[in-house]
């Protein structure tokens, strides 16, 4: 038998799970609070997360640490969305639409990256990710097999897709357009924009 100082079996795992849940609650609260007010304080985030300010500071000592964590979380979500879209499967236009469907769900987080000036200072904002490379490969595949417009630059079609997603997110957020309508408009315009 262990001494009184020995943690119970699984205690470290439970503590790790609790820390992960707390960190997730803080990040989710931060996205919600900062979306509503870009100048919100760490105290505002703590209140929304249902934790003390000292708890937030334990996980994210500075506002810049919290913003970097949000950026990293968004990149992870984009990577997971890209994988769920199965970009190597089926015709390129269909794969691109699946990707838009997945990315559309990240609207609040993506708009936060675009809207909060401090994110421009985050080093991860300009890095080319595996998701970016997978999308470029998809566009090249579609151009090669004639299902996507071969006359335009690959990065142009990538930018067009992101611009249409941004327009759909803004339409839903600022104009009150139902999300399914904004997404339908995005996909309809994308089909025309990438068609050969």
Automatic annotation (TrEMBL):
Residues 20-78 form the HTH tetR-type domain. Keywords: DNA-binding, Transcription, Transcription regulation. The keyword Ubl conjugation does not apply. Residues 41-60 bind DNA. Pfam families: TetR_N. Residues 1-20 are annotated as: Disordered. The keyword Transcription applies. PANTHER family: HTH-TYPE TRANSCRIPTIONAL REGULATOR BETI (PTHR30055:SF234), HTH-TYPE TRANSCRIPTIONAL REGULATOR RUTR (PTHR30055). This is TetR/AcrR family transcriptional regulator. It comes from Streptomyces zaomyceticus.
């Amino acid at each position: 038998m262990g001494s009184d100082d020995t943690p119970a079996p699984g205690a470290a795992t439970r503590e790790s799970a609790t820390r992960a849940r707390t960190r997730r609650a803080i990040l989710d609260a931060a996205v919600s609070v900062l979306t509503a007010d870009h100048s919100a304080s760490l105290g505002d985030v703590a209140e929304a997360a249902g934790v003390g300010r000292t708890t937030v500071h334990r996980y994210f000592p500075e506002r810049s640490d919290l913003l970097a964590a949000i950026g990293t979380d968004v990149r992870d979500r984009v990577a997971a969305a890209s994988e769920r879209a199965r970009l190597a499967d089926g015709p390129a236009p269909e794969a691109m639409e699946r990707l838009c469907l997945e990315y559309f769900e990240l609207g609040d987080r993506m708009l936060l990256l675009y809207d909060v000036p401090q994110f421009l200072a985050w080093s991860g904002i300009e890095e080319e990710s595996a998701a970016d490379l997978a999308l470029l490969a998809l566009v090249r595949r579609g151009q090669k097999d004639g299902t996507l417009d071969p006359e335009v630059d690959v990065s142009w079609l990538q930018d067009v897709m992101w611009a249409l997603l941004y327009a759909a997110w803004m339409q839903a957020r600022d104009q009150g357009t139902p999300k399914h309508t904004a997404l339908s408009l995005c996909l309809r315009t994308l089909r025309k924009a990438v068609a050969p």
